[in-house]
């Protein structure tokens, strides 16, 4: 749409229909039909707008033509003003619409940024929740280990002294038995009775030695006599864990030990003992779940030096781990055992313990063949034993 600053033509100001209607109305006012054209003809008078000739009016008398031309110019002025107002309104509306579009785009961009920030915040919240859950789990395990340590301390204190008395008295009784053998009249019944008495004393002394050994293993397992981090002798921790698992399964497991000479390493003996026990317990459970004869089930425990690290390998020929479960064995509370038979934290604790010692856990398993767990412990601060 043109404005006052432009030089509009007659066609810009009036459409063909409007021009035809204007000619008809002016013809009714004049004595002869009137024609409004853009070309000059004989006897026509100019029609001016903004001091510019925009058309020529013919028809009617001379005075009627001049009056009609002035009337058309007057009408064109109001048409132009209307067009100008319409243009201003249109331009304002377009500008407002463009501004609204700009604000809408800005709002969309702001919403996208807030949505992205919200997602980032949610990710951070989820990460913090996982950290809190992990810390809670570690606190739970730490509290459980401390409870075991306190229990072992109580057992050691309450049992060690009586076991010492019993063991000492049994040795004295065995010595007395030899004196009795000389004092009692020789007869087949008396000799048989004395031999049975000697066997009973020997079995009792063996029993007290086993009880003392179990108490010693509990002390090593829970590390009640050591600080949180101290020098650990991996082979001793492994042997204690093996003895405890054997006791747990009534000494029915066939466990072979191939332990190389290892240096002592700085670590947390209680958590390492818990790790070895957990892996051995899983191996024992795998043997129990297999279809083979119990006598065919075997567990191999190895320790060796590999460069600047210690490797502990615990291998069994049990049922193995299915491919579907292999990716979840380290998930907290995941277990394939029946409800109430396992917490699903054994390998999770083992992995976290090895990570705390800058080491790692690797599991290789085939269903129906067995599982090999390799525990790697760096020799930080190692000392030759």
TrEMBL record:
Keyword Glycoprotein in annotation: no
Reaction equation(s) it catalyzes: ATP + protein L-histidine = ADP + protein N-phospho-L-histidine
Stored Pfam families: HATPase_c, HisKA
Enzyme class label: transferase
Coiled-coil residues: 90-138
Family annotation (InterPro entries): HATPase_C_sf, HATPase_dom, His_kinase_dom, HisK_dim/P_dom, HisK_dim/P_sf, Sig_transdc_His_kin-like_C
Record-linked Gene3D superfamilies: 1.10.287.130, Histidine kinase-like ATPase, C-terminal domain
Top-rank taxon: Bacteria
Entry EC no(s): 2.7.13.3
Record CDD domains: HisKA
Keywords noted in UniProt: Coiled coil, Kinase, Phosphoprotein, Transferase
GO-annotated molecular function: phosphorelay sensor kinase activity
Span of domain Histidine kinase: 154-381
Protein name: histidine kinase
Annotated organism of origin: Marinobacter maroccanus
């Amino acid at each position: 749409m043109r404005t006052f600053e432009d030089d509009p033509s007659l066609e810009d100001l009036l459409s063909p229909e409007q021009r035809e209607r204007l000619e008809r109305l002016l013809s009714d006012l004049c004595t002869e039909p009137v024609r409004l054209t853009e070309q000059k003809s004989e006897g026509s008078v100019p029609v001016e707008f903004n001091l510019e000739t925009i058309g020529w009016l013919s028809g009617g008398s001379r005075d009627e033509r001049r009056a009609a031309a002035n009337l058309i110019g007057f009408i064109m002025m109001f048409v132009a003003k209307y067009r100008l107002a319409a243009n201003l309104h249109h331009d304002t509306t377009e500008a407002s619409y463009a501004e609204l579009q700009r604000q809408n785009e800005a709002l969309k961009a702001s919403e996208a940024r807030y949505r992205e920030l919200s997602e980032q915040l949610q990710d951070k919240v989820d990460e913090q929740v996982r950290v809190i859950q992990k810390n809670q789990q570690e606190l739970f395990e730490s509290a459980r280990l401390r409870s075991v340590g306190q229990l072992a301390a109580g057992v050691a204190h309450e049992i060690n002294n009586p076991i010492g008395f019993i063991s000492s008295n049994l040795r004295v009784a065995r010595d007395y038995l030899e004196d009795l053998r000389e004092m009692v009249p020789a007869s087949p019944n008396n000799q048989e009775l004395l031999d049975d008495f000697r066997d009973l004393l020997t079995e009792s002394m063996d029993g007290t030695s086993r009880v003392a050994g179990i108490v010693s293993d509990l002390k090593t397992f829970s590390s009640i006599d050591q600080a949180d981090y101290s020098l650990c002798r991996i082979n001793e921790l492994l042997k204690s864990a093996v003895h405890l698992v054997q006791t747990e399964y009534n000494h029915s497991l066939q466990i072979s030990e191939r332990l190389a000479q290892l240096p002592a390493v700085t670590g947390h003996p209680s958590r390492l003992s818990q790790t070895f026990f957990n892996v051995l317990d899983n191996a024992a459970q795998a043997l129990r779940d297999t279809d083979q004869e119990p006598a065919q089930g075997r567990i191999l425990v190895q320790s060796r030096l590999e460069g600047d690290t210690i490797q502990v390998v615990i291998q069994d020929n049990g049922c193995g781990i299915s491919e579907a479960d292999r990716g979840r064995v380290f998930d907290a509370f995941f277990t394939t055992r029946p409800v109430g038979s396992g917490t699903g934290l054994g390998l999770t604790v083992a992995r976290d313990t090895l990570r705390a010692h800058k080491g790692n856990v690797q599991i290789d398993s085939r269903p129906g063949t067995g599982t090999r767990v390799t525990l790697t412990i760096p020799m930080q601060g190692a000392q030759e034993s």
